[in-house]
C-alpha cells in the first residue's frame, strides 16, 4: 500500500536563500530530531545537490535501531524543486519532493512524501501503530527547527 504525507510551511526568506539551505545535504542534520542520531557517511565535497547524487547515512527512526539509508537526488529544478528517493533503506518506496514557491512575504515550502512499507500486512500494521505518527513528528520538529533558523512571518 502506498501512503502519502504532505506539509507546507511559510519561511521568511527568498527563494535563493531557501534553495541554498535545502540543497545542501549537510543541513539535513540541523532539521532532524536529535534522537534519530542522523549521521551522513558520504563525504560531501559539493555544496549543492545535483541529479544522480548519492548520499549514505545512518539514522535511528524507531526504537533506537540504527539503519543504513541511501538517498539519490533526482529531478533537480533549481530553485523550484528537487526530489530524493531512497535507494537503500527500510522502506519499499520513499520519494520526497521539496518544492519552493516565491510568495510576496517569503517562500512557501512544500514537502510531499510518497512511501511504501515492506512486510505486507505487518507493514500496514506498523504504519497504523507508529510509522505515520513518526513521519508527522519528524516534520513537526523540522518546522520548529526552521523557525529557529529563519524566524517566523508576523
What does this structure look like?
The protein has a single domain (2-150), classed as START domain (Alpha-D-Glucose-1,6-Bisphosphate, Chain A, domain 4), CATH 3.30.530. 25% of the residues lie in helices and 38% in strands. The chain has helices at residues 15-22, 120-150, and strands at 2-11, 39-40, 54-59, 67-77, 81-88, 93-103, 106-116. It starts with a strand and ends with a helix. The model has no long low-confidence stretch (mean pLDDT 94).
Helix content: 25-40%
Strands of the largest sheet, in order across it?
Answer: 1-7-6-5-4-3-2
- Estimate nothing, just give the exact number of structural domains: 1
Identify low-pLDDT runs: none
Give the CA-based shape: globular
CATH domain topology: Alpha-D-Glucose-1,6-Bisphosphate, Chain A, domain 4
CATH superfamily: START domain
Which key terms come to mind for this protein?
154 residues, alpha+beta, Alpha-D-Glucose-1,6-Bisphosphate, Chain A, domain 4, 7-stranded antiparallel sheet, 2 helices, 38% strand, globular
Please render the helix and strand layout as text.
Elements: E1 2-11, H1 15-22, E2 39-40, E3 54-59, E4 67-77, E5 81-88, E6 93-103, E7 106-116, H2 120-150
Antiparallel strand pairs: 1-7, 2-3, 3-4, 4-5, 5-6, 6-7
Outline of the structure:
This protein is of the alpha+beta class. It is 25% helix and 38% strand.
Amino acid at each position: 500500500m502506498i501512503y502519502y504525507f504532505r506539509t507546507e510551511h511559510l519561511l521568511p526568506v527568498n527563494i535563493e536563500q531557501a534553495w541554498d539551505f535545502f540543497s545542501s545535504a549537510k543541513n539535513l542534520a540541523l532539521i532532524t530530531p536529535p534522537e534519530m542520531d542522523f549521521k551522513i557517511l558520504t563525504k560531501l565535497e559539493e555544496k549543492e545537490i545535483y541529479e544522480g547524487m548519492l548520499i549514505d547515512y545512518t539514522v535511528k527512526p524507531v526504537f533506537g535501531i540504527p539503519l543504513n539509508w541511501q538517498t539519490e537526488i533526482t529531478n533537480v529544478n533549481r530553485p523550484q524543486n528537487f526530489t530524493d528517493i531512497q535507494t537503500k533503506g527500510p522502506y519499499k518506496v520513499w520519494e520526497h519532493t521539496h518544492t519552493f514557491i516565491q510568495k510576496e512575504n517569503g517562500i512557501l515550502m512544500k514537502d510531499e512524501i510518497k512511501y511504501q512499507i515492506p512486510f505486507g500486512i505487518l507493514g500496514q500494521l506498523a504504519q497504523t501503530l507508529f510509522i505515520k505518527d513518526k513521519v508527522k513528528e519528524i516534520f513537526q520538529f523540522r518546522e520548529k527547527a526552521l523557525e529557529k533558523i529563519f524566524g517566523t512571518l508576523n
